[in-house]
Amino acid sequence: MADTAPLPRPQGGPITSQLHRREPDYLAGLNPEQRDAVLTTEGPLLVLAGAGTGKTRVLTTRIAHMLNQRLAWGSQILAVTFTNKAASEMKKRIHEQVPSLDGLPWMGTFHSISARILRQHAELVDLKPTFTILDTDDQIRLIKQLLEAENIDEKRWPARQFAGMLDAWKNRGLLPKDVPAADSGYFANGKGGKLYYDYQARLKVLNAADFGDLLLECIRLFRENPEVLAEYHRKFKYMLVDEYQDSNTAQYLWLRLLAQGKPASEANICVVGDDDQSIYGWRGAEVDNILRFESDFPGAKVIKLERNYRSTANILKAASTVIAFNEGRLGKTLFTDVADAGEPISFTQVYDSEEEARLVGEEIEQYQRQGESLNSMAILVRASFQMRELEERFITLGLNYRVVGGPRFYERKEIRDALAYLRLVAQPADDLAFERIINVPKRGLGDSTVNMLTATARHQQVPLLSATRLMVETEDLKPKQRTTLRNLVAQFDNWAHRAESLPPYQLVEQILEESGYMDMLAADKSVESQGRKENLKELSRAMEEFETLGGFLEHISLVMDRDNADASDAVTIMTLHSAKGLEFNTVFLTGWEDGTFPSQRSMDESGRAGLEEERRLAYVGITRGRKRVRISAAQNRRIHGLWQSAIPSRFIDELPPDAVEVTDRGSAYGGYGYGGGAASRFNKADPFESVYETPGWQRARANQANRRGSGPLTIEGDLVARSVDLGNQSSSYALGDRVFHLKFGYGEIMSIEGNKLTIDFEKAGTKKVLESFISKG
DNA sequence: CCCCTGTTCGTTTTT
DNA sequence: CGAACAGGGG
């Protein structure tokens, strides 16, 4: 292996450059702190990188520097991230900066790197190298089975809750024997601890690991097998960790073990992060890890990156002032050299959340008229229930938007079904996959048949597929089921055989066809079936780049996100959490009301720590803006169906007054002023001015008028106008499409006559409406 | 076995 | 108020 071979000295070019004291090109343009962070390769290093201070550039340049100076082979560098997105971004940049690589650095998420290590030493943690990685779905089903076996009432003790506890334990690095009695005793009247043991035992039988296990079993591997750990100590000369503030205890232990090859004060470990952007405490992240780094690694060098290249001075001032209210920070203050402070932050209080949506819509259109692209604008909300009103408003306006988040591609039912087939082909012992597809499509194999198979599997201690093989040779099954199962087993054997020679993307197509899955979708007249077929095509396309089935399955279980390659110009709507790491010229921060943001629940559950995390979220939100940040709050918002009034977020009071401009859409209803009514002077002359006269509303009306022509609003008149407008163009809707209507809500198209559509609305029943009144749902 | 109805519950999300 | 889910009935 190249890892241990002596490193050649840098080639001619760099040496000459050094003699002339010319720095390598890649250092050009870095500020002194960034340069320091790149060049300090030896010993522990903590880089505190504030928002927009060029963190990613430092990380990648640092790796490029190591490779360029031949400090290490590529494969001796370990770079860890939290998300696949960050990992692939890093890979891309390294490839750009270092065209010829001697061995690829290990770049990936904690989980993918752990999986890679575990596959090499699987036997040492009672797994086979081909072990399956379970997703949340499988996990829940497995837990349900255990609950049933233990006679635990699933209503009283939901599987999801236990999954959450398991996750929390694993995040804390706790094996079943390590769980404190108080913790394990809580669930199902003391059965929690036993369930954890049972769960782990079951995973071993299934030859499977869940996400938490990837880390936990890796830790166990290192602890119980010092010689294996030593191997990695020799291997990894340099370690880098991105977003260190997001690391949880298990990840921390994992890193500590890997860094133990040298005394702590000499470990070449570089962690990059920002304690002010730690927003994942609720899922186990320990800000403490970053706060403690200097004592964990004595003599660690600390470099602060505070020079911001993203936002205006006003934005930075606002963010810095708010975050300064937190205690227990390492302390950084962002600054910029740009003289112009830029627009002040705006804060607007409106009457209710509907008006907030109108306001945002209007402002977006205004900026758009000024030549800003929709892509450069984003609305960041605390929770996704806030998105709906925005979306509805934008539909009315005909404003193109994109929602980030939501259900992911690989979590869709049809994709999971297809994956289950593939898993079972690759891994005949994958019982969870077996159970998932045994009767999908319907084969007349109901609960009773499955129960018989399960019983045999238990008895014989074999996987379900093997149990099925045995059962079809006996007289225990009804003839019909026996034939069906015999054929199914034969099919799987056949597919497994083909998997050896056929590219995975062709295999999946054949499986879906031969299993009857495609026929099932074809027979399905529901709205979704067409989309499902397309998703499956997309799956096959995504598989084209994989040569082996195993390679694809590994990728899929670790990379659950789909890359949105949406080229159209659209405003982004997303949560503050998913906005971390992104930037936009204009950022709208809506719903800044106490209770919504900061979230009441956070404060109730986690007290002061909760509030501080919310404040960091505010900091993240504000620092997403390059040119302008527009904050709003509603006096009234509908929560759980009822209207509730609220006062502006306490974070509003924490904003620096001289960087903020308060405007008020004077409401006729009085309500709460800002800062004791200081904003009242901004009230409009006529407090009763109708909101329906706002530019946005007028435009919405104009849009609708354009779409339907200027004829009378009768069916007939409209029909004529439409047919003229559209010429020969046919309806852009199809039977079964899910659509949205302003008054009637969501519905499904039952029939189409010209532009007259019969729609079955979920709420309002079946109505005939004009195409121009609906939009795609 | 599927559909319908009643019930429950109501941040944030990755791997 | 409305989505999601479980359980019962047809």
From TrEMBL:
Known catalysed reaction(s)?
Couples ATP hydrolysis with the unwinding of duplex DNA by translocating in the 3'-5' direction; ATP + H2O = ADP + phosphate + H(+)
| GO MF entries | 3'-5' DNA helicase activity; ATP binding; ATP hydrolysis activity; DNA binding
> Which residue numbers delimit the UvrD-like helicase C-terminal domain?
313-581
Q: Which GO terms describe its biological process?
A: recombinational repair
Q: Sorted alphabetically, which PANTHER family does this protein's record hold? A: ATP-DEPENDENT DNA HELICASE SRS2, UVRD / RECB / PCRA DNA HELICASE FAMILY MEMBER
Record's function text: Has both ATPase and helicase activities. Unwinds DNA duplexes with 3' to 5' polarity with respect to the bound strand and initiates unwinding most effectively when a single-stranded region is present. Involved in the post-incision events of nucleotide excision repair and methyl-directed mismatch repair.
Q: What's the name of the protein?
A: DNA 3'-5' helicase
> From which source organism is this entry?
Devosia elaeis
